[in-house]
Amino acid sequence: MTGYLARRLGQAVLILFGITVITFVLLYLLPADPARQIAGRSATAQTVENIRTQLGLNLPLWEQYWRYLTNLLQGNLGRSYLQKTEVSALIASRLPASLLLMAGAIVCELVIGLSMGVLAAVKRGKFTDNALMVLSFIGVSAPQFVIAILLLYVFAVQLGWFPIGGYGTFQHLVLPALTLGLLGAGWYARMMRSSMLDVLRADYIRTAQSKGISGAKVLFRHAIPNAILPIVAMIGIDIGMFMSGIVVVESVFGWPGIGQLAWQAIQRIDIPIIMGVTLVSAAAIVVGNLVADLVAPLIDPRIKLR
Amino acid sequence: MSAIAPDLGSPMAPARPVQARSVLARLLRRPQAVFGLVVIAIIALAAIAAPLVAPYDPQQQFFEGLTLEGAPLAPDGQFWFGTDLLGRDLLSRLIFGAQTSLVIGVVANGIAVFIGALVGITAGYFRGWIGTVLMRFTDLMMSFPALLLAIVLAAIFKPSLWIVALVIAMVNWVQVARILYTETRSLSEREFIEAERSLGAGSGLILWRHILPHLTSTIIVWATLGISTTVLLEATLSFLGIGVQPPTPSWGNIIFENQTYFTTAPWLVFIPGAAILLLSLAFNLLGDALRDILDPTQRGRGE
């Protein structure tokens, strides 16, 4: 176990290092001159040149990367070109909103997905099962921005139940969390259904039934808890899906998280912010996958660590 | 995903080519697959015959296409799906937009499957340091949030039709590479491959004659299933304004252009939105049915 853990941690660190290299090279290729952006339109060539020297933009690529990496290891993500603030401070101020949104999305996808899966498995082969599985397919095939606008149109504009966007109260959270969670709900519905079907075939369920325990009790006390376990381990993997989703969902709903921060930065080509958000979200994905791998064998001892 | 190795069948399994006719017959027995095929066929036909079936020129701005206040028209007898913010016929724009969405979806996924196959099969067959380097790189690419990476790439290269397809391919090849790596690896350890090797067959011959035929079903499944992802990604990039650029219509940029009207003219968002959903759903249903038929060991989330 310790050997495995050490190796996985080592791999995670290597991947993070690789991510810094790739983001750095990609953003170096961006056809924008940060020095000119910072200096503004009316700046003289001399000012622009001074800023360039100050930022180290005239150094060779590898030296710029080295500067970046040493700063990064000290927890310094650089300063935003346009907002003149520390990127780490910007991200730290936006992160709670994104985490709240993701927590809401996890609740939505689990509640919707798992109940759909259980219902479909119980009604296996019947109309309900087929209808639910078609619904789950619609959930994974629907473009998130259309779902976002649809929910806004129906529940905010027409019915007026929720605010049209923004941040602050529980009411603000419902629609964005639902949008972000629906995609995962489709996946969870399908996985929960097949997991339930496996469990319902197991001997201990038959034993429980033959002992005369009521159907509902078998379902809620024995089948569902066992079927849920292998699926809970998947939550870590969802982080990747969320990190892509928040860019769109936060932009549509005006949710002040890191997705919106990234999108605004991309439009203004504010490279340090783009880099910071990419790094933070990639790190979250790496950690999420690591947790998923480590949790799986704790939940299901049949899975062996290799 | 699970740590339990799939059943590999008998060690001397002969190459099992995919029989197109029996696969089609089995597809036609599944309502989901038939629905997928019909939707794809209709959209593809509309895209190919766009100049013939579209009622109007997609770029023409009708004088009578806007209300006196300059707002888009609701669906009526003349403009079946209404008009957009510039008084253009939405149906005609949708039909021409089908060309963009379908071509980018198919081409991007084609490139993605090609890169994924190249990386996955090379790494799985040769292993060694090449395999390690390739798969570490694949793991690395998997750790990037796909949309964020695509947005950054789209911002670097000025978006044109083919660049958008390329950008989407560059973030979508990783899963294909992962799966084909695992399959090639276990295949090349099997006895009939060892036997070929000991008889002096070259790598190229083994790969082409014995490994590739076993991988066709996986490749076919991903060539179908992946399109649903690439269609969604194109729509999302175009919706953000960094995909296909107006005036070339794409389903995503129709929504991008008209989104400010969504409270007063919701059809401008929801009709193209439904089109995107239908196309993506169709490829998902077809791909899922193909996976059931061709490859019963590979189910679930497709990791």
List the helices and strands and how they pair.
The complex is a heterodimer of chains A (306) and B (303).
Chain A: H1 2-28, H2 34-39, H3 45-55, H4 61-73, H5 87-122, H6 127-141, H7 144-158, H8 170-200, H9 203-210, H10 215-232, H11 235-253, H12 258-268, H13 271-299
Helix pairs in contact in A: 1-13, 5-6, 5-8, 5-11, 5-13, 6-8, 7-8, 7-11, 8-10, 8-11, 11-12, 11-13, 12-13
Chain B: H1 20-28, H2 31-48, H3 50-53, H4 90-126, H5 128-142, H6 146-156, H7 161-188, H8 191-198, H9 203-239, H10 251-258, H11 267-294
Helix pairs in contact in B: 2-4, 2-11, 4-5, 4-7, 4-9, 4-11, 5-7, 6-7, 7-9, 9-10, 9-11, 10-11
Contiguous runs where pLDDT drops below 50 for at least 5 residues of chain A = none
The biggest sheet of chain A, with number of strands, parallel, antiparallel or mixed sense and barrel status, is: none
User: Which protein chains make the most extensive interface, counting residues with beta carbons within 8 Å of the other chain's beta carbons?
Assistant: A-B, 54 and 46 residues
The biggest sheet of chain B amounts to:
none
Q: How many helices of chain B in DSSP terms?
A: 11
Distance between the termini of chain B: 6 Å
Q: So how many helices of chain A?
A: 13
By DSSP, the count of extended strands of chain B is 0
Q: Span from first to last CA of chain A? A: 9 Å
Uncertain regions spanning at least 5 consecutive residues of chain B: 1-15, 299-303
Helical residues, percent of chain B = 55-70%
Morphology call of chain B = elongated
Note the overall shape of chain A: elongated
Estimate percent helicity of chain A: over 70%
